[in-house]
Design goal:
Helices cover about 40% and strands about 20% of the residues. It has nine helices and twelve strands.
Length: about 240
């Protein structure tokens, strides 16, 4: 059960959360408690609306109920994880080990079972937000994929130890592909991950950026070895062997 507020005000940076929960009473109680601790909460009751709302709000953390009308929390989690690295905290009445494992393997970062402590929930939200912002845990490591190295913090990339002269958009595009190497990403997913505009997905400007990126990587556009085109689907950064 949710507890009465017992914590004092905090100096933590304000956070934004999307709460996907169809229990109206629980959603309001949870939102009220979190908002009293400087967390802005957007409530979504229908699973089908959750993905669009998360991509629109771009919250620090997503609180996701497992059992939802329209679309299951697990399906939402998998879809979101293919589009975004936002921390996802599963909130559900189903606390069996098998359910926790399924949720975590589906892309969730954490799992909390109902009835839960509101203080623990707030602590977990803050912990995941700090990690996502790079304020906790070890420093982010560079991405090393064969001959390609990407330093996300410095926005620097090299191929065969030679620096790549990339635009900001090209770097973000390469980073999104590298972080999901071996996975096919659609144009729409790439636009979401790079934080571009919706128009860019429809006018195929992603294709232009990919073309420029290939040229700078020395990738043959007719037979690319690094950035593969999956016809009718999107693009994939190939894992070198």
């Amino acid at each position: 059960m949710l507890e009465e507020r017992t914590m004092t005000s905090t100096t933590e940076e304000p956070l934004t959360v999307v709460l996907v929960e169809d229990d109206e009473r629980l959603a309001k109680l949870t939102a009220r408690y979190l908002e009293s601790h400087d967390v802005t909460v957007t409530i979504v009751a229908d699973g089908r609306e959750a993905i669009a709302r998360v991509l629109q709000v771009r919250p620090d953390v997503v609180l996701l109920d497992l059992m939802l009308p329209g679309m299951s929390g697990l399906d939402i989690c998998r879809d979101l994880r293919s589009r975004s690295d936002v921390p996802i905290l599963m909130v559900t009445a189903r606390g069996e080990e098998a359910d926790r494992v399924v949720g975590l393997e589906g892309g969730a970062d954490d799992y909390i079972a109902k009835p839960f402590s509101s203080r623990e929930l707030l602590a977990r939200i803050r912990a995941h937000a700090r990690r996502a912002r790079g304020a906790a845990g070890p420093a982010k490591k560079t991405i090393q994929l064969g001959r390609l190295m990407i330093d996300a913090d410095a926005m620097h990339a090299t191929l065969d130890d030679t620096a790549l002269n990339l635009t900001t958009y090209e770097f973000m595009l390469l980073r999104a592909l590298a972080e999901r190497a071996g996975r096919v990403l659609s144009r729409e997913q790439l636009v979401d991950l790079v934080r571009g505009s919706a128009e860019e997905a429809f006018d195929r400007s992603v294709d232009v950026h990919i073309s420029h990126l290939r040229a700078k990587l020395g990738d043959d556009p007719r037979n690319p070895r690094l950035i593969k085109t999956v016809r009718g689907v999107g693009y994939m950064l190939a894992l070198e062997r």
